[in-house]
Amino acid sequence: MEAWGTVVAILATLMVATVDAKIYGRCELAVKLDKAGLNGFKGYTIGDWMCMAHYESGFDTSFVDHNPDGSSDYGIFQLNSAWWCDNGVTPTWNLCHMDCRDLLNRHLLDDIVCAKQVVSSRNGMTAWDSWTKHCYGHDLSEWLKGCNMRVRIDSKKMNS
Q1: C-alpha 90 chain-centroid distance
Q2: Per-residue pLDDT for 154 more than 80?
Q3: H helix count then E strand count, the chain
Q4: At a CB cut-off of 8 Å and minimum separation 6, what does 108 contact?
Q5: Geometric angle at alpha carbon 145, from 148 and 149, rounded to 5°
């Protein structure tokens, strides 16, 4: 009977996390990222952020990916449990000083603060393989088409 109680508690926790999760629309996310000050942050545009988030999570705040090394990537920016957050399982540096579960809800401020820390590291956006593969050196203007935003869309900074 005790095992049944544990199962119910786990399911209830998952349901709460799922209810608070969100898959953002392209323009809705672009506006949020712009308002959070990401346009021009460390030389990267909203197009860079949008492209990376699309290829990392499909704009899904609840997305979790498990890696062969045992770590996991969390949230819309797929922040790694070995480096940026603590999932209670993976040995971690927890450089953003946060619980990985906090990256799985619709509230993006903590995700953005942590992602800014990633980009401020020596690797910049190359910390995300998807950015290097799909976004670096590409025309990123498509990510903001039709969003009625006035932001710089050409990336001036290209880290290697």
Answers
A1: 19
A2: no
A3: 5, 3
A4: 32, 33, 36, 61, 76
A5: 25
Angle, CA of 150, 36 and 81, to the nearest 5° = 130
Active-site hit among 2, 28, 56, 142: 56
Rounded to an integer, what distance in angstroms lies between the CA atom of residue 111 and that of residue 102? 8
Please write the tens of the pLDDT for every residue from 63-87: 999 999 999 999 999 999 999 999 9
Residue pair 40/157 in contact (Cβ under 8 Å)? The answer is no
- Residue 28 annotated as catalytic: no
Question: Are the CB atoms for 18 and 63 separated by under 8 Å?
Answer: no
Give SS3 for 74. Answer: strand
Helix or strand or coil: residue 18?
helix
**Residue written as token pair 């050196």:** 137
Residue 14 has pLDDT above 60, yes or no: no
pLDDT mean over 34-41:
96
